[in-house]
C-alpha cells in the first residue's frame, strides 16, 4: 500500500471513530461520552475482576437471600453499568410505555411526572426518591412539582453524578442526594411528605423490608407510589422458556429474585400501608415499553464497536466490553419478557400511611 493510500485509510478510520464516538456516541441527554466510560468507583484495572465477581454471585444462591450480601452486589453492579446506561440510554434508568407522537425522552418524563402526581405533593414539601440512580426522575419530578426531593442510592459514584447533573440543570436547590442503603435509611421517623420509587425496590431481597423503611420515614397520611418489576399472571414456572427469560433478567439486572405481581400488595399491607390503587401500567392499551429496546439493536452494535475499540486503545477499561455484552443479552431477555407478557417493569402500587400511625 503506497503512502497516499495508507494516509487515506488512516484518515477514514480516524473520521469514522470520531463520528461513532462524538456524533453517535453521546446519550440522549448529553451527560456522558464514550471516551468517559469507566467502572464507576472501581479502578480501571479491576473492572474485569469485579465483573467476574458479580457473575459468581449467582453461583452462590444462598447469598442471594442474605440481606447483608446484596447491597455490595448491587453496588458493584451499578459501578459497572452506570456509565454505559448514561451513555446509551440516558439519565433515567427505567422504562416507560411508548406514546405515539412522543419521543422516548418525553414518554419517560411523563411517566415520572405521573408518579409525583399520584402522591399529591405540594410545592415546598419534602419527598423521598427511593433508589434515585443518577437522578433523572428526581430532576423531572422536582421541576414538575417544585417539591424538595431527597434521593438515596447505595452507589457513591451515582451520588456524585446526580449532584453534577442537578447543578447543571439548576435544580440543586430542590434536589438532595444521599449515599445509603434503602434498607437502613439515615432519615428520621415521620420526616417526608411523600415518597416514590421507580423500578428500584426490585433490588431488595425482601420487599417488606424496604417498604417498612419507607413506611417509617413517611408522615402519617402521606402517600407512596412504586413502579415494581414483577412476573405477571402469564408467567408459568413450569415453562422452561419462561424460566430462562426471568433468570436472564435477574442475572443481567442485579436482582436477588423477581417477585410475582400478587406479592406486592401483600408486602405493603404487611408493614402497615393501606393500598389505595394497584395497576400494571404495561398492560394494554399502554403501548409496548420494550419497543425502545428492539429499536436500539443497531445502536447496540454501533456502541459495542466503539467500546471494543476504546478498550483496545486503553481508553476504556477492558472489562467494559464484557459488561456491555451482558447488557445486550439482558435486553433480549427483557424484550422477550415484554413480548410474551410474562414480565412487567411497571406494576404500579399506590399506598397510604394511615393517619393513626405515629
TrEMBL record:
It holds the Pfam family Sterol_MT_C. This is Methyltransferase. The keyword Chaperone does not apply. One of its GO terms (biological process) is sterol biosynthetic process. It catalyses: 24-methylidenelophenol + S-adenosyl-L-methionine = (Z)-24-ethylidenelophenol + S-adenosyl-L-homocysteine + H(+). Belongs to the class I-like SAM-binding methyltransferase superfamily. Erg6/SMT family. Pathway: Steroid biosynthesis; sterol biosynthesis. InterPro entries: Methyltransf_11, MeTrfase_SMT, SAM-dependent_MTases_sf, Sterol_MeTrfase_C. The keyword Thylakoid does not apply. Keywords: Lipid biosynthesis, Lipid metabolism, Methyltransferase, S-adenosyl-L-methionine, Steroid biosynthesis, Steroid metabolism, Sterol biosynthesis, Sterol metabolism, Transferase. It comes from the Eukaryota. Its EC number is 2.1.1.-. One of its GO terms (molecular function) is 24-methylenesterol C-methyltransferase activity. Catalyzes the methyl transfer from S-adenosyl-methionine to the methylene group of 24-methylene lophenol to form 24-ethylidene lophenol. Residues 77-354 form the SAM-dependent methyltransferase Erg6/SMT-type domain. It is an enzyme of class 2 (transferase).
Amino acid at each position: 500500500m503506497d503512502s497516499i493510500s495508507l494516509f487515506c485509510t488512516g484518515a477514514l478510520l480516524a473520521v469514522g471513530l470520531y463520528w461513532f464516538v462524538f456524533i453517535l456516541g453521546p446519550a440522549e441527554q448529553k451527560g456522558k461520552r464514550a471516551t468517559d466510560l469507566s467502572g464507576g468507583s472501581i479502578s480501571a484495572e479491576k473492572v474485569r475482576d469485579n465483573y467476574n465477581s458479580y457473575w459468581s454471585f449467582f453461583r452462590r444462591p444462598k447469598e442471594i437471600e442474605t440481606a447483608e450480601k446484596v447491597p455490595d452486589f448491587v453496588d458493584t453492579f451499578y459501578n459497572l453499568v452506570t456509565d454505559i446506561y448514561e451513555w446509551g440510554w440516558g439519565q433515567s434508568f427505567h422504562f416507560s410505555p411508548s406514546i405515539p407522537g412522543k419521543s422516548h425522552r418525553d414518554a419517560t418524563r411523563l411517566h415520572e411526572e405521573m408518579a409525583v402526581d399520584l402522591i399529591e405533593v405540594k410545592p415546598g414539601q419534602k419527598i423521598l426518591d427511593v433508589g434515585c440512580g443518577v437522578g433523572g426522575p428526581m430532576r423531572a419530578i422536582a421541576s414538575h412539582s417544585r417539591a424538595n426531593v431527597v434521593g438515596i442510592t447505595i452507589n457513591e459514584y451515582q451520588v456524585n453524578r446526580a449532584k453534577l447533573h442537578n447543578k447543571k440543570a439548576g435544580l440543586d436547590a430542590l434536589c438532595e442526594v444521599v449515599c445509603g442503603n434503602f434498607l437502613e435509611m439515615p432519615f428520621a421517623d415521620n420526616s417526608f411528605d411523600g415518597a416514590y420509587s421507580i423500578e428500584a425496590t426490585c433490588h431488595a431481597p425482601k420487599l417488606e423490608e424496604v417498604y417498612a423503611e419507607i413506611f417509617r420515614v413517611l408522615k402519617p397520611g402521606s402517600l407512596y407510589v412504586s413502579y415494581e418489576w414483577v412476573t405477571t399472571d402469564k408467567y408459568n414456572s413450569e415453562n422452561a422458556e419462561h424460566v430462562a427469560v426471568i433468570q436472564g433478567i435477574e442475572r443481567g439486572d442485579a436482582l436477588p429474585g423477581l417477585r410475582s405481581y400478587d406479592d406486592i400488595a401483600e408486602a405493603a399491607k404487611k408493614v402497615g400501608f393501606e393500598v389505595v390503587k394497584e395497576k400494571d401500567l404495561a398492560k394494554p392499551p399502554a403501548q409496548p415499553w420494550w419497543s425502545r429496546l428492539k429499536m436500539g439493536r443497531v445502536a447496540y452494535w454501533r456502541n459495542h464497536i466503539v467500546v471494543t475499540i476504546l478498550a483496545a486503545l486503553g481508553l476504556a477499561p477492558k472489562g467494559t466490553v464484557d459488561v456491555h455484552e451482558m447488557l445486550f443479552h439482558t435486553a433480549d431477555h427483557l424484550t422477550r419478557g415484554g413480548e410474551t407478557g410474562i414480565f412487567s417493569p411497571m406494576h404500579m402500587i399506590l399506598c397510604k400511611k394511615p393517619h393513626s400511625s405515629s
